[in-house]
Amino acid sequence: MSDAIRICMWSGPRNISTAMMRSFENRPDAAVSDEPFYAAYLAATGLDHPMRDEVLASQPTDWRAVADSLVGPVPGARPVWYQKHMTHHMLDGFGLDWSRSCRQAFLIRDPARVLASYVVKRGEVSLAEIGVERQRELFEREADRLGAAPPVIEGRDVLADARGKLSALCAAVGIPFDDAMLAWPPGPRASDGVWAPAWYDAVERSTGFGPPPDETAPPALSDDLRRIADAARPHYERLAAFKL
């Protein structure tokens, strides 16, 4: 394994995770990977996601093969490898030893707002599918290993102060901040997952972060979704207490 800095960013869905990936990919020293466990997750759960067949054909469906790749050579032999991971993809049976080679960080968003966005793309959603509980488990695991809280960053904070928050994140994972992280060309990327046409319409139009959305009013949620949001909130608040 090379001595490259591998950054494992744990996020849930419907956050700014793809914009964060764009930001890191715009650094000349960085390679990125887009949700490498997605196909393994779909194969193990049997869930019917948009473009399911294409996703299954595009990646290894055995989590062990994915884990082996993540401790293998860095794409393009770059000194920084930013890995965008969805917490809900890490099912209980998927090993996590590979993540010890990474500098782990956590990207969070208020679960009520995650749900309001997610149901636009998928008609039904469960607590497990927004990954907040799993995100807390992964956070606690890494905090126990380090003896201190790993870095936590909130999506809306990045949108409000991209330079400040990205500078803090870079310092926390041991790399210099680069102004190239603040803006990027619009359009798709070869590094995007094959599922991009179903999910990445907004980020493909983007050229940078922000401005943050107006979140003064709470999102309108059905009773079922409100119950999920309420169940997720303690896990979100645990991580939010450690925000950069």
From TrEMBL:
The keyword Transferase applies. Keywords: Amino-acid biosynthesis, Branched-chain amino acid biosynthesis, Transferase. The keyword Transferase applies. It holds the Pfam family Sulfotransfer_5. Signal peptide: none annotated. It comes from the Bacteria. Transmembrane segments: none annotated. GO terms for molecular function: transferase activity. Gene3D superfamilies: P-loop containing nucleotide triphosphate hydrolases (3.40.50.300). GO terms for biological process: branched-chain amino acid biosynthetic process. Belongs to the class-IV pyridoxal-phosphate-dependent aminotransferase family. This is Sulfotransferase family protein. It comes from Caulobacter mirabilis.
